[in-house]
User: Which sequence fits this backbone?
């Protein structure tokens, strides 16, 4: 059995200590939003893990961002955003706020790393930068979708 | 001589084989007689001449014949060009090295490349075994001067009338520590570094430093800022005091143009007031608490790593979040990279200058340029007012070794 979709209990996301729980999201019901421009040649990528890597059940995802800055959710500043980690899910619609659930981890406190605990098996991870209101930039800053093997 | 060595290697490659095999074979071999009134000389090269770095030299001979090395025939010989060296012992084969260039193929002209400065040139005829004749056939010593402006053969020509200028700040201005510098260019186009396009270049801002050597790549360090993305302005932070600013245009390889395009030197003074104010504000400022286990660290490079002069420094942050400067949010801060300095006082705003780089936009990596050699790097997280947290979130001070990478612009 593959663990493509998680039951709630399977995934424990240990958000980095002391950054208070995820910023509560007010997700507007599917409505196109104005998207903020990203910096040219901006890039979001995984420092760790990298594509095809075998990782333990509990591991730290480390995120790199090129040519833009990190700002907590809610902070309006050009060429900044905060990270979203998409787990075992396809890319979300880009003209709407990124959902917040177990497959879409918001790092709204401006975190650049997050500890994940995933069940054994094959998983995919992908990064997507969102602006102050969790909407992808224009053009979107997203990483390649990587596949990892949890052993 | 090493530099010279590499320059002459083309020539040497051609001739070294035949020369080497015979040079130094016997201590005092028999010498061939030269013809009466035999004479060798430089054609069209006068003593005291100023010549370009890369120059074709032609050799003349009277009353004897040229024969390739190895061909033993009376009244013949082949040329040897002595560069910056006195005559070698005349009873032995002429050495074959960077100062003694053999033309064993019987060449009567050669293109040589000389470094800038004064040089001496002299011709000496050698026989089939590279041994001077009796009496030796030798030219007069020619003194030449190589014009430094001609040394870099890859310099991009600049159109006449092109110029760069500092639009801001004005010469003699008194400015705040944070200065916006605006660059102007006329008669040329701006192009990103790496983009080879005629009549284009990118700005280099020289801070507190004279013009660098114009025949090589403009250094890239804290005093020589490159604007390789064709930027036309920048914000720099200077220590209080007097400073000089100057612009120098570089081509796609960061080499000044020919003729070089640079601005006048602008003198500015950074007022002390801002510093005093900051210092005053500092002790009263409360420090933000940091969570336990918070840590800032280098993702790249690691301690004692060798890196390239242009390297992207990547920052990691554990158990806290990144927020741009000015954003007051608990458990966040922004990165500061300390280059080659000791840890500053942690109870006041971190200085902002060339050694204390602020990442007030929330950046988590930065491409910086360091001069070759050893450097130290350290990361400090600080709050929205640039004051480190309590306890401070600070990385270990790492040591990096910057490789001395030379552009391979010279073709071998």
Assistant:
């Amino acid at each position: 059995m593959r663990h493509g979709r998680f039951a709630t209990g399977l995934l424990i996301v240990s958000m980095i200590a002391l950054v208070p729980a995820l910023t509560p999201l007010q997700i507007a019901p599917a409505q196109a939003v104005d998207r903020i421009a990203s910096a040219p040649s901006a890039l979001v990528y995984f420092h760790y893990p990298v594509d095809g890597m075998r990782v333990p059940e509990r591991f730290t995802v480390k995120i790199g961002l090129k040519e833009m800055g990190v700002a907590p959710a809610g902070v309006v500043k050009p060429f900044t955003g905060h990270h979203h980690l998409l787990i075992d899910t396809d890319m979300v619609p880009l003209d709407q706020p990124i959902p917040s659930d177990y497959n879409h981890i918001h790092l709204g406190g401006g975190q650049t790393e997050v500890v994940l605990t995933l069940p054994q098996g094959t998983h995919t991870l992908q990064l997507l930068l969102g602006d102050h209101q969790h909407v992808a930039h224009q053009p979107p800053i997203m990483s390649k979708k990587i596949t990892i093997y949890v052993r | 001589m090493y530099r010279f060595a590499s320059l002459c290697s083309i020539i040497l490659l051609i001739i070294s084989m035949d020369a080497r095999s015979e040079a130094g074979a016997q201590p005092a071999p028999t010498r061939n007689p030269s013809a009466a009134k035999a004479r060798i000389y430089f054609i069209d090269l006068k003593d005291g001449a100023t010549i370009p770095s890369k120059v074709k030299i032609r050799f003349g001979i009277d009353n004897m014949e040229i024969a390739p090395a190895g061909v033993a025939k009376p009244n013949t010989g082949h040329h040897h060009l002595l560069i910056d060296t006195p005559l070698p012992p005349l009873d032995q084969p002429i050495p074959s090295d960077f100062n003694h260039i053999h033309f064993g193929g019987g060449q009567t002209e050669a293109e040589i490349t000389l470094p800038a400065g004064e040089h001496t040139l002299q011709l000496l005829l050698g026989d089939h075994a590279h041994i001077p004749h009796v009496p030796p056939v030798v030219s007069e010593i020619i003194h030449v001067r190589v014009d430094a402006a001609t040394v870099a053969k890859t310099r991009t020509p600049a159109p006449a009338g092109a110029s760069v200028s500092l639009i801001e700040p004005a010469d003699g201005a008194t400015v705040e520590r944070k200065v916006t510098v605006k660059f102007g260019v006329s008669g040329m186009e701006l192009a990103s570094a790496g983009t080879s396009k005629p009549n284009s270049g990118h700005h280099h801002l020289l801070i507190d430093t004279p013009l660098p050597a114009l025949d090589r790549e403009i250094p890239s360090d804290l005093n020589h800022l490159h604007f390789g993305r064709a930027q036309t302005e920048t914000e720099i932070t200077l220590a209080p005091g007097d400073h000089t600013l100057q612009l120098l245009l570089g081509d796609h390889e960061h080499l000044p143009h020919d003729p070089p395009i640079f601005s006048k030197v602008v003198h500015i003074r950074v007022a002390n007031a801002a510093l005093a104010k900051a210092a005053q504000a500092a002790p009263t400022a409360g420090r933000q608490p940091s969570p336990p286990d918070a840590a800032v660290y280098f993702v790249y490079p690691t301690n004692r790593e060798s890196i390239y002069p242009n390297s992207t420094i990547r920052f990691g942050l554990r158990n806290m979040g990144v927020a741009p400067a000015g954003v007051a949010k608990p458990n966040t801060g922004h990165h500061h990279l300390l280059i080659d300095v000791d840890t500053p006082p942690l109870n006041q705003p971190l200085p902002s200058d060339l050694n204390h780089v602020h990442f007030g936009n929330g950046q988590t990596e930065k491409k910086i340029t360091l001069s070759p050699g050893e450097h130290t790097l350290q990361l400090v997280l600080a709050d929205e007012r640039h004051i480190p947290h309590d306890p401070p979130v600070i990385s270990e001070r790492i040591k990096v070794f910057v490789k001395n990478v030379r552009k391979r612009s010279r073709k071998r």
Remarks:
- Residues 36 and 114 of chain B are 34 Å apart (CA to CA).
- The two ends of chain B are 17 Å apart (CA to CA).
- Chain B touches chain A at residues 291-294, 299, 312, 314-324, 327, 329-332, 359, 361-365 (CB under 8 Å).
- Residues 1-26, 278-284 of chain B have pLDDT under 50 and may be disordered.
